[in-house]
Automatic annotation (TrEMBL):
Residues 8-194 form the Isochorismatase-like domain. InterPro entries: Isochorismatase-like_dom, Isochorismatase-like_sf, Isochorismatase_Nicotinamidase. This is nicotinamidase. Signal peptide: none annotated. Pathway: Cofactor biosynthesis; nicotinate biosynthesis; nicotinate from nicotinamide: step 1/1. Gene3D superfamilies: Isochorismatase-like (3.40.50.850). Belongs to the isochorismatase family. Its EC number is 3.5.1.19. Pfam families: Isochorismatase. Keywords: Hydrolase, Metal-binding, Pyridine nucleotide biosynthesis. SUPFAM superfamilies: Isochorismatase-like hydrolases. It comes from the Bacteria.
């Protein structure tokens, strides 16, 4: 599957805070960096995303005096899971992972920068109404096939893939270039992908 001029590699949240040693680490997240670098060499169009939270963000357990992972709060847009403080704006943990080598990336989309709303998806914030602008960028560039990789399968990659499909893009998740958090939530997300028409491939189909 040779990337076409209308294809884009969408690299989700490859940031130190999500890699081993970070406060919200995804197991083996660092292992996919070399593969993503190789994939990037095949795609003339690359877009990155960054989680980019202000202090006292709604998703931080510390904001509410609660426990990360187990506690939740109710937000206007629904139940908000609570996490350790992570990807604070302009900190090393929020930077693009230094080992990522994608110098030709044409856009970095920052999400989750509004204090009172979280944003898993690269396309819509968690109210499922507020756009990030990525959809418009891709349409203006006539980029119609999206190949997703990064972190994490059951959250930001997952919801980005679903929203991309709902916006009419053809979507492929490069399975071996993604890592997830929880096997059960990964299973649920995969079922949602299948229902939505998100296609799953392996990197070998691109790299040969």
């Amino acid at each position: 599957m040779k990337p076409e001029p209308t294809d884009v590699l969408l690299v989700i949240d490859m940031q130190p805070d999500f890699l081993p040693g970070g406060p919200l680490a995804v197991a083996e997240g660092d292992e996919i960096v070399p593969l993503i670098n190789r994939l990037g060499e095949r795609f003339p169009e690359v877009v990155l995303t960054q989680d980019w939270h202000p202090p006292m963000h709604i998703s931080f357990a510390s904001t509410h005096g609660k426990q990360p992972f187990s506690d939740t709060v109710e937000a206007p847009y629904g139940t908000q899971s609570l996490w350790p403080d992570h990807t604070l704006q302009d900190t090393p943990g929020a930077a693009v992972a230094p080992s990522l080598r994608l110098p030709h990336a044409g856009l970095i989309v920052r999400k989750g920068f509004r204090r009172d709303i979280d944003s898993y998806s690269a396309f819509l914030e968690n109210d499922h109404q507020t756009p990030t602008g990525l959809g418009g960028y891709l349409r203006e560039r006539n980029l119609s096939r999206l190949f997703l990789c990064g972190l994490a399968w059951d959250y930001c990659v997952g919801f980005s893939a679903l929203d991309a499909r709902s916006l009419g893009f053809e979507v492929f998740v490069i399975e071996d270039a993604v890592r997830g958090i929880d096997p059960e939530s990964m299973r649920i997300m995969t079922a949602r992908w299948d229902e939505a028409g998100v296609q799953r491939i392996h990197s070998a189909s691109i790299l040969g």
